[in-house]
Structure formats: structure tokens, C-alpha cells
Design brief:
Elements lengths: L2 E4 L5 H15 L6 H6 L2 H12 L7 E7 L2 E10 L10 E9 L8 H15 L4 E7 L3 H9 L3 E11 L2 E11 L1
Parallel strand pairs: 4-5
Antiparallel strand pairs: 1-2, 2-3, 3-4, 5-7, 6-7
Helix pairs in contact: 1-3
Length: 171
């Protein structure tokens, strides 16, 4: 049985593995292979340990914990680029599931818990950024009620520039 709980320091290695393997699986054919191959669990875990040991402000990390330990991770907090209007907007910064477990409802469970906690913190909407060419992720977020709002930004991966689209959802 998988359940969602707050991440703790003991989860760092597992979360780094989920993130790096998730990137390598989800972005294959989108992000340059050289960029993906250069990612390591060790480097990610080192960065995450530093980040985890410092004050994190209002962001929150949750893990989906199953029989084999953490199998998914979501990080969220206040929207980094505030939107006009009366609603206080949160942002999903990252959501990854172990690649061998995608399609089993773990991402949906993590996102649902993140939405509940956002709402409990007084947020009225949630935003996130998704690579335009990541059709699988876009379908996932659209099924969860997110819609592209027309905002776009470019990110550089190696020597390739990729476009991200902003998605929004009411809570």
C-alpha cells in the first residue's frame, strides 16, 4: 500500500534517484541525451542535502512511500512568478514517479495531496510549468484539471532551447 507523507532527510537518496531517473525517462527524445546522461544521482543528492539542511521557506516536499520505500516525489510552494488577480497562487515545482511505476496512480495521489495541502494553506489556484514537447505530462496535468494559460518561457539544456508552457488550475 502506497501512502503520502512529508519527505525527511532519510529520503534524499531515493528522491534523487526518482528525480534523475524520472528526467532520463520522461525527457528522452526531448532534452539532449548528453544533458540527460550527465545527470547523476550523487550530484543531485549532494545538492538536495545542502538544500534540505537550510531553511526552505514555504516550500514543501512530499513522498509517495510504498513497500520499497519512496516511489514518487512532489515539491510545491508559492508561485515563483506571481499572477495578477485576487487569488493566492501556489506552484508545483516538481513531480516525479519512479519510471517503472508510472501509470499506476502514484503521480495522481501525490498531486491530489499537494492540492489538498495548498488549499489548506490558503491558496486558491495552482500553477506549473511543463515542457511543450512533453505530451505525456501535458495529458496527465490536463486530466488533473490544469489548462495552459498562454504563458511560455524558454529554458536552455546544453545547446538546445526548449519551451515550457504554464498551466493553471483552481483549487
Amino acid at each position: 500500500m502506497t501512502h503520502v507523507r512529508e519527505m525527511d532527510a532519510a529520503d534524499i537518496e531515493a528522491v534523487s534517484t526518482i528525480r534523475v531517473r524520472g528526467w532520463q525517462a520522461a525527457y528522452a527524445g526531448i532534452v539532449p541525451r548528453t544533458y540527460l546522461d550527465a545527470m547523476t544521482v550523487e550530484a543531485d543528492a549532494s545538492m538536495r542535502r545542502q538544500w534540505f539542511s537550510s531553511p526552505r521557506g514555504e516550500s514543501m516536499d512530499l513522498v509517495a512511500h510504498g513497500e520499497r520505500g519512496p516511489v514518487g516525489w512532489v515539491c510545491f510552494g508559492p508561485c515563483r512568478s506571481p499572477l495578477p488577480g485576487p487569488l493566492r497562487v501556489a506552484e508545483v515545482y516538481a513531480l516525479y514517479v519512479s519510471p517503472d511505476l508510472t501509470g499506476q496512480g502514484i503521480g495522481r495521489m501525490l498531486l491530489g495531496e499537494a492540492h489538498s495541502r495548498m488549499e489548506g494553506q490558503g491558496f486558491g489556484a495552482s500553477a506549473l510549468w511543463v515542457l511543450r514537447d512533453n505530451r505525456r505530462a501535458r495529458r496527465f496535468y490536463e486530466r488533473a484539471g490544469y489548462r495552459a494559460d498562454g504563458a511560455a518561457q524558454d529554458d536552455v539544456y546544453g545547446e538546445v532551447t526548449l519551451t515550457e508552457l504554464r498551466y493553471l488550475r483552481g483549487l
